[in-house]
Amino acid sequence: MDDRIFTAVNAFARATPWLHGVLLGYANYGVVLFAVLLGWGWWIARQRGSGVPAALWAPVGVLLAVAVNQPIVAAVAEPRPYTVLPHLLVLATPSADPSFPSDHATMAGAVAAGLLLVDRRLGALAALAAVLMGFARVYIAAHYPQDVLAGFAVGALVTLIGYVLVRRLFTVLVMRLEQTRARRLLTTLPAPVRLESGAVAMRP
């Protein structure tokens, strides 16, 4: 089934030469878009004054997911499609790295999962970008569909499970940083002011 889907996508690639440049560029450099989305997540959380711990965790989760993926890739050691299947249209630059799971899909899945913790709409947008990244990696013959799906799973699971484990720590960290000069990086809300009576009011 995986080979049939891959072959069908490769046939589609042969029939759509006008898409080659766009999808090849996105497959190789789309990581920049995901970096922008992570920055957007931080900006939204900062403006809203909530979700900042998740916004700070998201890029950490991405790095952790990619790190976790590396030993899996080495252990499975699946050859790239173009080294096994003859007569393919190959747009990807040949690589000696194994194919399963896809690092690009792992990154994209981790970003989408992390941003879903921050904002659902932004997370949905990141998920669409991730699906397009996965398709692009198959389109250029760099990966099988199963490589992409496995990458999505690794990225999302590592990010979501990791956040469950570190949520309290990141929440405490944010609360402490809000008492320092770093507050402006974390929220646009005014800092609370303690009155002489002991009551707390928001600074105008």
Q: Count the helices. How many?
A: 8
Q: What sort of overall outline do the alpha carbons produce when their principal axes are compared?
A: elongated
Q: Which structural class matches the secondary elements?
A: mainly alpha
User: Numbering strands along the chain, what is their spatial order in the largest sheet?
Assistant: 1-2
Q: How would you state the average pLDDT, rounded?
A: 87
* Helix percentage: 55-70%
Q: Regarding quaternary structure, how should these chains be classified?
A: single chain
Q: How would a crystallographer describe the biggest sheet?
A: 2 strands, antiparallel
Here the CATH topology equals Vanadium-containing Chloroperoxidase, domain 1
Contiguous runs where pLDDT drops below 50 for at least 5 residues: 194-204
- Helix-strand string: HHHHHHHHEE
Tell me the name of the CATH class: Mainly Alpha
- Counting structural domains, the number is 1
CATH architecture: Up-down Bundle
Distance between the termini: 62 Å
Count every beta strand, where a strand is a DSSP E run of 2 or more residues. 2
Strand content is under 5%
Q: Which radius of gyration do the C-alpha atoms yield?
A: 21 Å
